[in-house]
Design goal:
It comes from Flavobacterium orientale. Keywords: Signal. This is Short chain amide porin. This protein has one domain: Porin. The protein is 4% helix and 53% strand. With 459 residues, the chain is mostly beta strands. The radius of gyration is 23 Å and the shape is globular. The chain is built from 1 helix and 22 strands. A 16-stranded antiparallel barrel has the order 2-3-4-5-6-7-8-11-12-13-14-18-19-20-21-22. A two-stranded antiparallel ribbon has the order 15-17.
Length: 459
């Protein structure tokens, strides 16, 4: 009887974790392994397709054509996640997929030119998550403390709520990317291999991990002046990294069944969470001055607050969602990474104007030693019918970046609207975003814009 109650509770929590805003979804694709349903497997599949109209950075070429504007369509994410509850204490999680496939890049390693493995074709399917987990102290209603231990390729990377965010239920069209500060350098698409501990004590939720970062071997540019030395990722035989995140949940308690933090509950919960996190890795970057190299530690810290609650008349089912996070990043002197999502641009050798320091396409200064403040807010508009065909949620976001490698800080904005056809299970998101164009470390020449339309569905 106790096992049955526990299993039902776990399934209910996992249901809420994945099905915000759609009361008709049910338990999803779940298959019982035994008649009692205490052993089961569940599958979650989703895809996100982007249509874009983007202003390109000056000095951009796509194919053999110099351009300033580009329209395209791409596959932002195609994913499949499966988890199996072998017993009330033991769980296995596997998550595979592809990301960022366009008409010209994002294909399999080595794909180029024309033909079966031409530009952008047949991307490599890879593991995003693969871990085993054991509940040492099971969560129970009459017990304030719970503890689970796990190991493998995992997403319990600490730092902030958005560092461990679910890609199924963002309010904005996507994460701002700098929430994953190691992305595709010393991690595998925001994951590292290691061991983790997660659990709760009353209203406090905690997550800690120790990991072996993926090896990096970038070589720094040797300079004569230490003040302009720039750190690059170079950990070689990497030392263990440590990460953690702790938050206090004032109102409703959130599920920690899986690591993925919800972006917006669409009024189905009343949430106020305050959290803080860290990530640290010794000897992870390197600089070179007058032929002498020096290693530097990576030390990252954040604090954030998440608010999601119904507002106004209960009958109208309105809701407000807000999230704000401050990041303090130290990767070593003047560390800076330029990133652009699904960037198709390459440098135009014939361009004679002022080029963007970040590079061609939609690249921008994304991650670096310094500080970032990010805030987003949105309102789920009134529901006039019992089962409306579409729910609408306008939103806006603001980003302030102040990196040591750049003498001028940037201010960036996102504006958009979600059109929910069936909660987060079927939605269309339209968003306009801008990014700074640095032509010198102390000069932002202009801001370029990008309009995105996302088609999102998951089962």
């Amino acid at each position: 009887m106790k096992k049955s109650i526990l299993t039902s509770t776990i399934m209910l929590l996992s249901f809420f974790a994945f099905s915000q805003g759609s009361p008709d979804y049910g338990g999803g694709m779940k298959f019982n392994i035994n008649p009692e349903g205490t052993k089961y497997m569940r599958f979650i599949a989703w895809n996100q397709i982007w249509l874009r109209s983007s202003q390109m950075n000056p000095g951009t070429m796509i194919g053999d054509e110099g351009i300033s504007q580009q329209e395209d369509i791409g596959l932002r994410r195609l994913r499949l996640l499966a988890y199996a509850q072998i017993s009330p204490r033991y769980m296995i999680v596997t998550h595979i997929g592809i990301n960022n496939q366009t008409f010209i890049n994002g294909g399999a390693s080595g794909s180029s030119g024309t033909g079966g493995y031409g530009n952008g074709k047949k991307p490599g399917l890879f593991f995003h998550d693969a871990w085993n987990e054991y509940a040492v102290v099971l969560p129970k209603e009459d017990k304030p403390f719970s503890l689970s231990l796990g190991a493998g390729l995992h997403y319990y990377m600490g730092l902030s709520r958005m560092t461990m965010s679910s890609t199924l239920n963002y309010m904005t069209i996507d994460a701002p990317i700098f929430n994953w500060p190691l992305i595709e350098n010393s991690d595998q698409f925001a994951r590292q291999i290691g061991v983790f501990a997660k659990g709760k004590y009353n209203r406090i939720e905690y997550r800690f991990s120790i990991n072996k970062p993926f090896a990096t071997n970038q070589l720094p540019v040797d300079v004569a002046d230490e003040a302009v030395a720039r750190a690059v990722d170079n950990n070689n035989n990497a030392h263990w990294s440590k990460a953690g995140y702790v938050e206090y949940q004032f109102f409703d308690k959130e599920s920690n069944f899986l690591p993925f933090k919800v972006g917006t509950y669409l009024g189905t919960k009343k949430m106020l969470n305050i959290g803080a996190g860290f990530y640290t890795a010794p000897s992870s970057t390197k600089t070179s001055v007058n032929g002498e190299t020096e290693r530097h530690a990576t030390n990252l810290f954040s604090g954030d607050v998440f608010l999601d609650l119904p507002i106004g008349n209960k009958e109208k089912k309105m809701a407000f969602t807000g999230y704000s996070v401050f990041y303090s990043y130290d990767f070593g002197p003047n560390y800076l990474r330029n990133i652009g999502i699904m960037n198709e641009g390459v440098a135009d050798s014939n361009f004679t104007g002022d080029r963007a320091l970040a590079g061609p396409g939609n690249l921008q200064p994304m991650i670096g030693t310094g500080s970032i403040w990010y805030t987003q807010a949105g309102v789920l508009l009134p529901n006039k019918n019992e089962k409306p065909k579409v729910r609408i949620q306008p939103f806006a976001a603001y980003t302030y970046k102040n990196f040591d490698a750049l003498e001028k800080a940037s201010n960036q904005f996102d504006f958009g609207t979600n059109f929910f056809l069936d909660g987060h299970h079927a939605k269309i998101t339209a968003q306009y975003s801008n990014r700074p164009i640095y032509t010198a470390v102390d000069k932002i020449d202009s801001y370029k814009g990008e309009f995105l339309l996302q088609l999102h569905i998951y089962l």
